Amino acid sequence: MDPFSILMFVAVGLIASHVAHKTSEGEITLPPALSFGLAGALVGGIAAVEAGMEFYAILGPMVVATGCATVCLLTWRQLQA
Questions:
Q1: In which band, very low, low, confident or very high, does the pLDDT at 47 lie, cut at 50, 70 and 90?
Q2: Residue 9 · residue 45 · CB < 8 Å
Q3: In whole angstroms, how large is the CA radius of gyration of the chain?
Q4: Burial letters for 26-46: b for 16+ Cβ neighbours within 10 Å, e otherwise?
């Protein structure tokens, strides 16, 4: 796996974390948002690459990374309620 892919997964995780933090109206603070967003994006993206998901080079794994980060953040938000 190339470093560019990992950098893109980190960027996706940071963006998802920021969006979750800003749209949750104080329900999820920034440190858990960052940790769950980054973890979900990295795990999802690396798993997609290892599974051989190829769709316009890096786009397929980025979509999976975004979905996994979102699911992790939504799960955390529901567990806190």
A1: very high
A2: yes
A3: 13
A4: eebeeebbbebbbbbbbbbbb
SS3 80: helix
Show me where the domains of the chain are located: 3-80
Residue 2 near residue 45, CB atoms below 8 Å? no
Residues constituting the chain: 81
pLDDT in tens, 20-43: 999 988 778 889 899 999 999 999
Q: In which residue are the tokens 């890096």 written?
A: 58
Could you tell me which of 62, 76, 55, 81 has the C-alpha nearest to residue 9? 62
CB 40 within 8 A of CB 63: no
Residue 54 contacts residue 2 (beta carbons within 8 Å): no
The phi, psi pair for 28, rounded to 5°, reads: -125, 125
**pTM to 2 decimals?**
0.87
